[in-house]
């Protein structure tokens, strides 16, 4: 393992002003997104949509440091025959790959999930590296509800995240470690804070036990935030303050960067929260976005599967990428959104 090189890539993934595009929706999830805009989820439509994003010159060259791909996409070519991976590289961004294989019910733990995909992972990583992937992603899902999460679910998911991360580093691939505490319930921000603390502490304990080099990874956490159905929604400043307090308590400074998931926040909320956190600096790690929905909802709507809307889709994507790029430096203002509208 060349740790200097892993650290160089991890640092580039969280460079100030840039963040990561999570375009790794599995077939089921992208179908849901396409259903919402009335587009059939065929292999060629998925290719056309992602090609549109990767050819968005402004977004890709200025605000996107890396793209997380799904297995189908990493092997696909653009309409003109150029591998999609090459389009990403040519824009100056780094290709990455989602390597988990989704979740399964966790036996003896009703309502809880464990992420799978460790079998033959070393071999898959070798092929992805040859194709150009320089980082990977594995997402664990932790739900908050009555009596959950259990320490069993937190423990097995942390163990799998660390197994995955160690295999990535051995294959010279930077692991994005994503333990996502869902924001789907009616819990308040303090319950999210408490559960996320337990999850991150257990995750870093496992990473250390399995000898993962913290200097060669990126953490992709949720923010400390109110559940979507909670009657009392914490304001932006509280989300920022509690998230930074929590991360400072749980994430060692050796980690080069933290890149948030958006988790179902609106586009502008996700941007405002990241921006507010940068007002609380200096911070010990790079802090940026690795958004899926909060970067793609607008371009998906603008595109709606029509070739004549490609420019509109690219404009919508570039706008969100620019707003989040500014937020990753604490330079975003809500008036910039209105001006664009
Ligand atoms: C883009 O969505 C990713 C893949 O999800 P599925 O495996 O369920 O299709 C997801 O892991 C994503 O990378 C993160 O959750 C961040 O995306 P959001 O939309 O939460 O910012």
UniProtKB/TrEMBL annotation:
This is fructose-bisphosphate aldolase. InterPro entries: Aldolase_TIM, FBA_I. PANTHER family: FRUCTOSE-BISPHOSPHATE ALDOLASE. It comes from Bradyrhizobium japonicum. One of its GO terms (molecular function) is fructose-bisphosphate aldolase activity. Gene3D superfamilies: Aldolase class I. Pathway: Carbohydrate degradation; glycolysis; D-glyceraldehyde 3-phosphate and glycerone phosphate from D-glucose: step 4/4. Belongs to the class I fructose-bisphosphate aldolase family. The lineage of its organism: Bacteria, Pseudomonadati, Pseudomonadota, Alphaproteobacteria, Hyphomicrobiales. Its EC number is 4.1.2.13. The keyword Manganese does not apply. SUPFAM superfamilies: Aldolase. CDD domains: FBP_aldolase_I_a. Keywords: Glycolysis, Lyase.
């Amino acid at each position: 393992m060349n740790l200097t090189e892993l650290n160089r890539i991890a640092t580039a993934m969280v460079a100030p002003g840039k963040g990561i595009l999570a375009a790794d929706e599995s077939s089921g999830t992208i179908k849901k997104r396409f259903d919402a805009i009335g587009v059939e989820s065929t292999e060629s439509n998925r290719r056309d949509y992602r090609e549109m994003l990767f050819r968005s010159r402004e977004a890709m060259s200025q605000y996107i440091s890396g793209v997380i791909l799904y297995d189908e996409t990493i092997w696909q070519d653009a309409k003109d025959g150029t591998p999609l991976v090459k389009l990403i590289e040519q824009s100056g961004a780094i290709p990455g790959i989602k390597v988990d294989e989704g979740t399964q019910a966790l036996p003896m733990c009703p309502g809880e999930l464990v992420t799978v995909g460790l079998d033959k992972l070393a071999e898959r990583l070798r092929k992805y590296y040859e194709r150009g992937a320089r980082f990977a992603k594995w997402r664990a899902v932790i739900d908050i509800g009555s009596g959950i999460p259990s320490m069993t679910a937190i423990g097995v998911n942390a163990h799998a995240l660390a197994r995955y991360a160690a295999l990535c580093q051995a294959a010279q691939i930077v692991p994005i470690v994503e333990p996502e505490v869902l924001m789907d319930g009616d819990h308040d921000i303090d319950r999210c804070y408490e559960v996320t603390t337990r999850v991150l502490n257990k995750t870093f304990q496992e990473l250390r036990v399995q000898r993962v080099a913290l200097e060669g990874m990126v953490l992709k956490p949720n923010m400390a935030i109110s559940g979507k159905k909670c009657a009392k929604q914490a304001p932006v400043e509280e989300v920022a303050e509690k998230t930074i307090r929590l991360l400072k308590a749980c994430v060692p400074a050796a980690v080069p960067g933290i890149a948030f998931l958006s988790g179902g926040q609106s586009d502008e909320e996700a941007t405002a929260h990241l921006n507010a956190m940068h007002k609380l600096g200096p911070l010990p790690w790079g802090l940026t976005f690795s958004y899926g929905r909060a970067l793609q909802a607008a371009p998906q709507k603008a595109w709606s599967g029509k070739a004549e809307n490609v420019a509109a889709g690219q404009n919508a994507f570039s706008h969100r990428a620019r707003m989040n790029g500014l937020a990753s430096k604490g330079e975003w203002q809500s008036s910039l959104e209105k001006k664009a509208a």
